[in-house]
Design brief:
Blueprint: H1 2-23, H2 28-50, H3 57-67, H4 70-81, H5 99-122, H6 131-136, H7 142-165, H8 172-189, H9 196-208
């Protein structure tokens, strides 16, 4: 744990130093906030398990966007890829994350649940966005739960596309990052009955090792 913490701490400080050199202001408070939010979200999940509590689907997703690491990752990237970022126009980020952060994170969380449910069931982890609507509707049909989550993802993609076509100029590079994160999550977790790791291995093999017929 000390080794992991030191690596994260040093990487965080390296990013802060880079932004200070290039943009002239400190982003330490912004990045620190994302790590605090991440730790709090993990603790919330721990409370659910320890107290044998089942959250609502809404509460689970809201917390799950944070535990997916989306806010943390996108906040770090924000200060490195967005042009025109200043100390003044970044203040609102301490109060509320941008909408497209949340949209991308929700897509990632839902695809993660869809793609890893087999592995999670094998290790006894039954808390996922697929099972929660089943419990709320008192149904044992997992396929219905999957259909509901896929419909939610479809609607989230519509909202994310709206963000893309009507962007703030300064935010446009980051909206593209969020879009590509959502695409990647679908590629990684959308597969058949095989393990999602098998799907990732296949994609990597075709991208880097399989020759292309011309």
């Amino acid at each position: 744990m000390k080794i992991c913490f030191e690596a994260l701490y040093n990487t965080n400080n390296d990013i802060c130093d880079k932004v200070m050199r290039e943009r002239g202001f400190s982003v330490q408070s912004y990045l620190r906030k994302t790590w605090i939010d991440l730790a709090k979200a993990y603790m919330e999940e721990t409370k659910w398990v320890k107290r044998d509590r089942i959250p609502t689907l809404k509460h689970y997703i809201e917390n799950g966007v944070t535990t997916s690491g989306t806010y943390m990752a996108l906040m770090h990237l924000f200060f490195m890829v967005s042009d025109g970022v200043t100390s003044e126009n970044s203040q609102h980020l301490l109060d509320r994350y941008p909408k497209f952060f949340t949209l991308a994170g929700t897509i990632l969380r839902l695809w993660d649940d869809l793609g890893t449910i087999k592995e999670e069931q094998e290790r006894g982890d039954m808390l996922s966005s697929i099972h929660l609507p089943m419990k709320e509707k008192n149904t044992a049909c997992e396929e219905e739960g999957r259909k509901e989550i896929l419909q939610m993802i479809y609607e989230l993609w519509n909202d994310l596309n709206v963000e893309l076509v009507t962007p703030d100029v300064m935010l446009f590079p980051m909206i593209n990052v969020a879009l590509n994160m959502s695409r990647a999550s679908q590629v990684v977790y959308q597969h058949n009955d095989d393990s999602y790791l098998t799907g990732v291995e296949n994609h990597v093999e075709y991208l880097f090792y399989k020759p292309i017929d011309i």
